[in-house]
Amino acid sequence: MEANRILVVEDDKDIREGIEIYLRNQGYVVFQAGDGVEGLQVIMQEEIHLAIVDIMMPRMDGITMMMKVRDKGYDFPVIMLSAKSEEVDKIMGLNMGADDYVTKPFTTMELLARVNSHLRRYSRYLDAVTKAAEPENDTCHCLGGIEVNEETVEVFVDGNPVKLTPIEFKILLLLIKNPGRVFSADEIYERIWNEKAINTDTIMVHIRKIREKIEIDPKNPKYLKVVWGVGYKMEKQ
Predict the structure, then answer these.
(1) Spatial contact of 152 and 161, defined as CB atoms under 8 Å apart
(2) How far is CA 171 from the centre of its chain?
(3) Helix, strand, or coil here: 126?
């Protein structure tokens, strides 16, 4: 697994380097910046998963830097470092997009606990965003306990594999891709054989065989239903 990358923005060199040493010992990749200007430059050049930012710094303070980070669309966690006298700034930082704060002086164990907690949440957030962005698998069709995989030409009922003939598979695939829609025997024939229907008795035979394979009680089907005088459909579950 790739190590998380943490940016430490602090004008006090001793504090900055002390935090870096401790985080590196925990397996993190650490970048340093002496003020908000340098911090923004690092963020623009490197992939950062979390930033530890001091509030009071020269050139650009931590709150201004954090606001610019959010304005640019970065959503990684930001932990603010503050002195006890900076209570108002601390509240302002949280209101403007900071995720947490640690008051100086702090213990390394306290800081690490905050870092680990926010990185876990951020990792879950990234996983959720990635999953949401992935295209849905449109080759696998499920209805109740039936799963039809168009790509592998496999059928499972309640997790158990079912063997269908090529024609039976095509008919079941057509119906399961359109749950609730009624197909006439003529339409099924023309879609499966790609020719005008002449004698559709074969459709009734195939439907009966499919039922015997996918239904617990073929005489009282749960999935593949007959709409008398109209045709066949897969019942929505």
Answers:
(1) no
(2) 33
(3) helix
What average pLDDT does this structure show over 178-186?
94
Among 12, 66, 20, residue whose Cα is nearest residue 39? 66
The residue to which tokens 């302002």 are assigned: 92
Indicate whether 25 pLDDT > 80.
Answer: yes
With H, G, I as helix, E, B as strand and everything else as coil, classify residue 107: coil
- What H or E segment, with its residue span, contains residue 146? strand 146-149
53, 78 contact by CB (below 8 A): yes
In terms of phi and psi (left: phi > 0; alpha: psi -120 to 50; beta: otherwise), the region of 73 is: left
For the four alpha carbons of 123, 137, 224 and 237, in that order, the dihedral sign comes to positive
Give the pLDDT band of residue 89 (cuts 50, 70, 90).
low
Longest dimension (CA), the chain: 89
pLDDT mean over 157-168: 91
